[in-house]
Amino acid sequence: MSGIGGFFHPAKDYMEQREYCEGLLDRFRRTLKHRGPDDSGTFLSSHCGLARTWLAVSDTKNGHEPVQLERDGRRMTLVHDGEIYNKKELARQLAKDGASWLSFDSFPSEGQILLAGFFQYGPEFISQVNGIFAIALYDEKQKCLYLFRDRCGAKPLFYCEEDGGLFFSSEIKGLFAMPGITPSLDRNGLNEVFSLGPARTPGSGVFCGIKEVLPAHFLTVCKDSATDHCYWTLKSRPHEDDLKTTVEKTAFLIQDAVIRQIEADVPICSFLSGGIDSSIVSSICARELKKRGKRLTTYSFDFKDNDKNFRSNAFQPSLDRPYVEKMAAYLDSDHHFLECTSAAQADGLYGSIKAHDLPNMADIDSSLLYFCSLVGKEHSVALTGECADEIFGGYPWFHKEECLTARTFPWTMDLNARKILLKDDFIEYLDMDGYVQETWQRSAEETPLLEGESETEKNRRIISWLNLKWFMQTLLNRMDRDGSSASLAARVPFADHRVIEYLWNVPWEMKTAGGVVKGLLREASKGLLPEEVLWRRKSPYPKTYDKGYEALLASRLRQIMDDPSSPILEFLDKKKVEMFLESPSDYGRPWYGQLMAAPQMIAYMIQLDFWLRTYL
Q1: Which of 72, 144, 253, 388 is most exposed, with the fewest beta carbons within 10 Å of its own?
Q2: pTM (2 d.p.)
Q3: C-alpha to C-alpha distance for 217 and 209, rounded to whole angstroms
Q4: If you compute the radius of gyration of the chain from its CA atoms, what whole number of angstroms results?
Q5: How are strands ordered across the β-sheet holding 297-303?
Q6: CA-to-CA dists, residue 496 to 122, 154, 482, 524, 554, angstroms
Q7: What dihedral do alpha carbons 105, 111, 117, 119 form, nearest 10°?
């Protein structure tokens, strides 16, 4: 894991202000140090500056960047964030294709392999790379900067244009550390946080002028142009494998993805919730490490006194701990039960804003941020079970007719929950319904449909597309920022693009083999888990049911509403807020995805106020 940042201007000569520009690169290093506290480096030429901070989990001996390659009058320089999972195959292919002229003292680092690949094959080399990454490549002869982002968007990369040049950074805070780049919002930005948030439109940085390189895209920025290229997309075609073959291929792809992501020069751990997804990842990790004479460390997350406060509902039918205990015993893992108090969760709302630079998933984020801070004290690499529900159809909206036919984002079907606290004139100004509908329509129309599918399967394919492009992106953002804030590299094996590609065309009756939610995944994982875990009903990331936590949030929101300097007063209706705070909470009604309507919406408003204060 790393933080990268830099700038490019084809008409300026940065060497004329060398000391000043080197100072700007040092700002990037200081601002992004939490993403990589182990090492840092910079590069400055006439038209380009690059900076990188590094968390040493792989290539610990020779992973320093920027890396540079010069031959036949041509020079390229590269920095990257992330991890490459097929670097051995790439290195062999480079040697086979005549790149033996590249000399390395030892097996090349990820950065060296990437740089050699681009030198040998050009920017199209990116389509051969399997991993999670954000890459900046400068071709000095061509005077071109390339910005690449991985297929799923697991690693962030923001940019903005300023005075004819371009600045980029792993996190928005890196851009705001640059002179002349200041935060501001327009109506679109307000709609992103009030109407869509914590999701956001792909490519949007919410703030005016801030954009994000799209997943599976790269930008080419040269003297006369800036061009966006898509190097990978899903294609719909008939699925020709029978169920047995589908199960076998699915099992292979998942296990191969996990085994590739175990590789590190430091000890790894895994998050273990007791649900099927994290249990599968942990089981494969434990088996592979056992072959190497090592024992897996696992961590589970919960809330203090949740065993007393828990109330079963449609979204969270059972407590996790009994299943965690079964899995930890089954794996013989070195397991650690981590708990978060209500006060720590509430206090973490502010820290998660600092980690994301944007409003996020409220206490779902603040608690994960807290847990990552604990895990990060002991480990630098963690494997997680994120993204399986998006790929295998685990969420309720894949199964409900009203969601399939809603013609809106299925995780935010009722905008009334979002309007309930807002001033009437602000609701009218935003035109929330129109913004959401237009955004949904534009994204839904991008879905690669398969000719001849029924209307139901067409709708389900659209929902699958939206899940991959929107909902999964929100979870990947959460995992990256919360992990990186604790210098913890979080790996997500289910988001391997080979898994996504294959499962995209598997028909629904196979995904729900045996009439069971995620039946295909369960069939592909037989022998990896105890039966009671393998067939356990889905339970999402844990939430606290402590009434004291909700009272704490209500008290903090009232303080905000009573403070004339609170920036959110411009948008919230005091009477509506007080009425909402006095109403009984509905813990089973979702506000965003599977987030509870009352406590998490209060937490989100607290975050919004802090965000507006932080960025003036």
Answers
A1: 72
A2: 0.95
A3: 19
A4: 24
A5: 334-340, 297-303, 268-271, 381-383, 489-491
A6: 23, 10, 20, 16, 41
A7: -90
430-446 CB burial, b ≥16 within 10 A, e <16: bebeebbeebbeebbee
Average pLDDT over residues 467-495: 96
Is 53 in a helix, a strand, or coil?
A: strand
The strand pairing partners of 491, in sequence order, are 383
Question: Tokens at residue 193, please?
Answer: 């946080």
Query: Closest Cα partner for 39 from 22, 52, 24?
Result: 52
- Identify whether the C-beta of residue 284 lies closer than 8 Å to the C-beta of residue 254: yes
- The phi, psi pair for 349, rounded to 5°, reads -60, -35
Q: Whose structure tokens read 């290195």?
A: 91
511 close to 262: Cβ distance less than 8 angstroms:
no
CA angle 273, 480, 52 (to 5 degrees): 145
Sign for the pseudo-dihedral over CA of 551, 556, 562, 566: negative
Would you state the structure tokens that stand for residue 250, as one six-digit string? 């699915």
- How many residues comprise the chain? 616
Separation of alpha carbons 357 and 261, rounded Å = 28
Residues 512-571 pLDDT 10s: 999 999 999 999 999 999 999 999 987 767 778 788 898 999 999 999 999 999 999 999
Quote the CA–CA distance of 342 and 598 in Å, as a whole number. Answer: 15
CB-based burial, 344-379: b 16+ in 10 Å, e otherwise: bbbebbbbbbebbbbbbbbbbbbbbbbbbbbbbeeb
Residue 101: partners with Cβ closer than 8 Å, 6 or more residues away: 71
